[in-house]
Amino acid sequence: MSPRHLDATFAALADPTRRAILARLASGEASVGELAKPFSMSQPAISKHLKVLERAGLVSRGRDAQRRPRRLEAKPLAEATEWLERYREFWEGNYQRLDALLEEMKTKRPRQRRSKR
Amino acid sequence: MITTGQNEKKKLLVTATSDREITMTRVFNAPRSMVFEAMTKPELIKRWLGAFGGWKWVVCEVDLKVGGAYRYVWQGPNGEKLAMGGIYREIVRPERLVYTERFDESWYAGDAVDTTVLEEKNGKTTVTTTIRYESKEARDGVLKSPMEGGVSKGYDKLEELLAARLAGVDK
Lengths: 117, 171
Known about the structure:
Radius of gyration of chain A: 23 Å
Oligomer: heterodimer
Number of helices of chain B: 4
Order of helices and strands of chain A: HHHHEEH
Largest sheet of chain A: 2 strands, antiparallel
CATH architecture of chain B: 2-Layer Sandwich
CATH superfamily of chain B: START domain
Largest sheet of chain B: 9 strands, antiparallel
CATH architecture of chain A: Orthogonal Bundle
């Protein structure tokens, strides 16, 4: 996956309406009209969001020429999540060592105070 | 927005809050004055940040004042170096730090600005770090590095070693 592609994925997911559209498509393909229903938005507004999702490769169009149903493309989502997961693992490792250090600091601190008195 | 990590007490939560921003949230079982200290004193930073699996500290310098610099350099098991640093922009002890971050290796161009907020409740501290990449190039670069590999050997090695370490812990 190119960075440009990942970039588009993160940008597309930054919007709550687009995340809701993806959540809806996760349960099966749907037409623009069907997608617009649960939102208080016009079909053109929904179409705009769909275009962003399509450009990011997160949504594709089904074969039915009349309904033109949209469907979820799971791969870019999985790739973006995987990247983030690696980032998380790196920091979790650091933070686990910080946990151990903090425990040590907690046991040492009262003793240091006592020795000063 | 993508979130990874379980929302358990000790787990780290990482969220891509926009196309240029990553937010990390983690709870520590210690008062925030202590966490702040561990994040800003070189002798304490050295104990937890990046040093594992054969990686050793070479330089750990912190000039904790607004406009002051910090610089971290590590050396890997094969002699490879990983270096980064930045400038402190805001310091509100022990609740907030804003600083720039930049790696020596040019796998991303330009700075990122990190904001770390420490909130204490019942003796526990929630640390929220927001990393905002200042330019599109910077963000693209950092996204590219762990994803495609080979951009920074040192960083890849760090990732590998961490994965091995985590696998060991699981056993």
